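# step 3/5: fold
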Amino acid sequence: MGEPKGGNRALKVRFAYATKRPLKSVHVFGSFNHWNRTQFALVQVSPGIWERDLDLEPGVYGYRFLLNGTRAILAPKAPKIRDGNLNKNSKLVVSPQGFDRPVRRGDGAIFKAGLLPRPELTVRRAEREFLLVCQTRTRDVQRVFALLHGRRFRMKRVAGDDLYETWQVVVSLEPGEALEYQFLAADGGESLVFPEDRICQDSESFSLPDIPDWVGRTVFYQVFPDRFACDPLPACWSDAPASRDWYGGNLFGVQTKVGHLADLGVNGLYLNPIFRAPTYHAYNTLDYEQIEPRFGTNDGFKGLVGECHRHGIKVMLDGVFNHCDKDHPFFDDVAQNGPQSRYLHWFFVHKFPIVRERGQETYTGWAGNHYMPKFNTSHPEVQDWVARIGVHWIQEYGIDAWRLDVADEVDPECWRRFRKEVRNANEQSYLLGEAWGDARAWVQGDQFDATMNYRWRDLVLKRFAFQTISLKEFARGLDDLAEQVPTAVLGAQFNLLSSHDTPRFRTLCSDPDRLKQAILFQMTYPGVPCVYYGEEVGMEGGHDPDCRRGMIWDPKHWDRPIYMLYKELIHLRTSHEALIHGSYRVLKAENRSGLFLFQRGEGDGALRVAMNFGQEPVDVQPSAGKRGVRMGFKCDTLTVHPGGGVILC
């Protein structure tokens, strides 16, 4: 078995095998091509040897090999890297020119070619407050400063990989000052200012986000329609899910359970795709204006929205505008009419005739999937159409929000148009983008209000489930993430422990005390908490499709203490102003004692939240001038026992 060998962009991929079963095809795919399984085919150059040349931008990538179009494997001799969903992949490092020269922090020599200003990552956090970012070569320099109008701001090292370390700092402009700055890197006795000319950015070109008023006091509940509820439940309901099977859940079933949501206290419903589609997950849409008949009817959906609104529950739909189904009428027109199709430029067509089968190379499918042709969202007609669909479901059916699938692979101009039209239809619409990585580019006020906060989830997993980072590292990681978005966006970020794309948190977190602490943290940290269906009753599940089991409706099989914990915390979350709009600051993150204590809000309405990760009881104090316990577990008044948590007021 071979693996890609890194170079200065150009590299050769080599795959060698020894097996009795013949190989018909080998592909390499990874984060360098959005995990498109069919884009890069290798060529057999001799028995058992497959190769191809690639030209990649410098970077650190995860990758795999795909054998015979079905079996994805790791390169056994390559180092490993984990993605944002805890999957392990082979690691490929493509180094920039000159990176073969070794560097060492503190040696007084600075690798000038590794000094990168990153003005495209500048964030306007408040009226005159900006986040500045730069990068240096990994393990090269000791300190970095931002230079702004004669003032020096020491930067924090917040991330790093095999090539670069990322540094950031929040600076404040004085009235009348322009956003003009440089950076200074220092190591040993040497320092270098970069770039040579000051970076000049128009501070007024950075818009500030306008978050809908209701978002901050909302707790969402995510429903995967085929697996949530129906009447009667089919015999397969409790079976381990198979990836392609319909179970029979529908929108009428969801409507009959609105009372369950109201009793739990959630006031937002997030529905995975419900438009007409041939698959149970419905992420390959056939008709964006019709409900999938297995789920119900358009009138039935309107009834569900009305029932939710009567209970004070907002409704958010899942919009899949990056791709559609291979039999969607627009793509079918391309397949039937070829170059004469009016929709030819709506997709990425490579050659005719169109072949809609696995392994095809006639068009681009999302992630290489032949049944999901990718829209050309840079085309103005596609952008017009996407915006029209967004407005349609708001005006005709009264939905309150859109969750936008694969948002970071869609042309940003498409989302700008979408936001403008949707906000014209309802200025209080919440727009949520699916972006697993750095969120800052998407939440500057011109596209989304927030993103699904998988980076927050990653920190929570490392601290609560796996305990691979210290409390101080956890606190610093949260602060670094918070700095990377506008202040208003922090209160709108979609904080989730599990989703239809991840293993369930309870399965990953084997310690029941840590599970309770994670729920407590989710419900008291700034942002919009989301409960994935069944989390409130203790459901488990591994990677997709196991995380999509049928909802447990028999109360005898519920984890009642977890259910009651969710009810109490959701009620507190949606009713206490400090948790809705209050500030957040860490008071203690003590690795030795295990005490993690933070405060929400200031003054009379402040709350303090304490958790004990240590081995001995710890005593905590409420906010100044107060003495009381709002709620808690494994605590006696103001003493929190190991594994316990408490809210103090």
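# step 4/5: annotate
The radius of gyration is 26 Å.
# step 5/5: archive (pending)
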